Amino acid sequence: MEGTSLEELYELIANQHDAEFTYKSEDYVLQLESKDGKSYLVIWENSDTHDNRCLCRYETPSFHDIPKKIIDAVLSEKCFDGKSFLEIEKDITVTCIF
Question: Is residue 2 scored above 80 in pLDDT?
Answer without folding.
Answer: yes
